[in-house]
Amino acid sequence: MKRILLMFLTAALVFGFFGCSNASKEASEKIVDAITNDNEKTAKVNYEEDAYDLMGIDDQAFLEKYDESMIESFLDQDSAGTYEADYYYVLNNGVEVSILNGTVVSIRTYYNKETEYPVPVLKGIGGGDSYDSVVNKLGEPHYEAEELAFEEEQEYVAAVFYVGKYRYLKVYFEKKAETVSFVSCFYGEAPVFQKVGEIKIGDNLEEVKAAYEKLYYAPAYYDASQGEPKYNRIYYTPMEDRNREVECLEFYLYDKKVVRITSSVQDILEWRSYEDIFGMKNVFKENNMIGHRGNITYFYDDAAGNEQVLLKMENCATEEIDIDDDGITEIIAYKAGKMRTIDIYDYNADTETIMHLDICEALGASWSGYMGNAANVRNEYAKCIEAGFYETDGTTRTEVYSVRDNILTYIGPYSHEMFQ
Ligand SMILES: [Ca+2]
Fold first, then answer.
1. pLDDT tens digits, one per residue of 122-149
2. Left if phi > 0, otherwise alpha if psi is -120 to 50, otherwise beta: which for 224?
3. Where do the H-state alpha helices sit in 49-116?
């Protein structure tokens, strides 16, 4: 058991792979029921199949696969805590499985100890593999170190490989025999790459576009508290994956240069574009955060594939809303300043120009806002504009307007009747 604990600790030190242990009580009861249930299960496991497929499955699916007779020992919530798990199983074939929050979060296989049954491979890696054959199958390791397993006072070379969807294999090679002794599979952080395929840090957008046919765009909101590198665009591309969720390579860019390469797991792949801004297709938003407010650029690719700027705004945050319900999206700009004020940008198809409406300037108001952001505003006022004025006696009044084609129409004084 000491050896197992060591593996956990070393893996945790390298990757911090375990989250908080918040056991679901319901899930706990389900497992205990299943374990203590005398009903014979018919499921039989093929001990030679790849145990990697257990990763990420839920506790019920695990128990359906491995019935009670295949479980050599079991630690419940009270005693599995040592393993940072809610449940911890040792199977007849020596495989160890940790379940946390109702999901299999790590698996370990041992090829250096005798079991009644053959020990399954993990991602195709088994006791017959050498260091070279593992690298051949999984690629270069992300991390490698010599480690001592205290129980046997045996020295191992431990190499960690990223195997997709934030999953890592830590493979221990016995130094003398140079073959795999045991393998641990666990979750970790997304890997950060200096270079993937033909793309490396510092390459430009054109090179990324040339290297990957399927590129999706997501607006990026850089938070200075996250530290360097600063970025304002993310492009991502799917990797081969047989499961429903798709693992993607992510390229973070700043000034159209790659500053970070990592991966993410996406449910659905889609262009995060604002397709109907001013009725235009495939308009993208770039948000350059500088301090509290940002510089916003809307851009698109022209027919020749060259990037064109549709609209650039400074010192504001923006929101894309069809404010006049004509099916075409306008832009509301929330401007930085002492008073909260908004501008609206709409497109005039006749003159082919972008119209800019400064609410305060148009009405002689001191402040202005979009009512859709207020809590519990009635539907009919949700797309209205409010404008505030100072009276000569120092009191204030607020008026409500609707807007269409950037023309303001007075609705009435701001009143609590407009809220639910
Ligand atoms: Ca509209």
1. 999 999 999 999 999 999 998 899 887 7
2. alpha
3. 59-65
Q: Ligand 1 centroid to 326 CA: how many Å?
A: 5
* Residue 135 DSSP code: H
* 347: β partners: 354
Distance 280 CA to ligand 1 centre (A): 12
- How do beta strands 87-91 and 71-75 pair? antiparallel
Distance CA 311, CA 295 (A): 11
How many Cβ atoms sit within 10 Å of the Cβ of residue 402?
18
Element spanning 13, H or E: helix 2-15
- Cis peptide bond prior to 413, omega within 30° of 0: no
Contact by Cβ (8 Å): 125, 169: yes
Which is nearest to 217 in space by CA: 293, 307, 279, 291?
Answer: 307
Question: Six-digit token pair at 200?
Answer: 């490396």
Cβ(89)–Cβ(97) under 8 Å? yes
Quickly state the pLDDT bin for 292 (edges 50, 70, 90). Answer: low
Query: 340 to each of 25, 218, 311, 385, how far by Cα in Å?
Result: 47, 28, 22, 12
Q: What is the DSSP string of 140-173?
A: S-SEEEEEEETTTTEEEEEEEEEEETTEEEEEEE
Please report, in angstroms and rounded to a whole number, the separation of the first and last CA atoms in the chain: 62
Global confidence as pTM = 0.74
Q: What are phi and psi of 253, to 5 degrees?
A: -125, 150
Whether residue 387 contacts residue 367, with contact meaning beta carbons closer than 8 Å, is answered with: yes
Give the angle 3-6-9 at the CA atoms, nearest 5°. 155
Given a contact cutoff of 8 angstroms between Cβ atoms, the answer to whether 41 and 189 are in contact is: no
Residue listed under structure tokens 């100890």: 113
222 Cα–ligand 1 center, Å: 29
Could you tell me the distance, in angstroms and rounded to a whole number, from the CA of residue 364 to the centre of ligand 1? 24
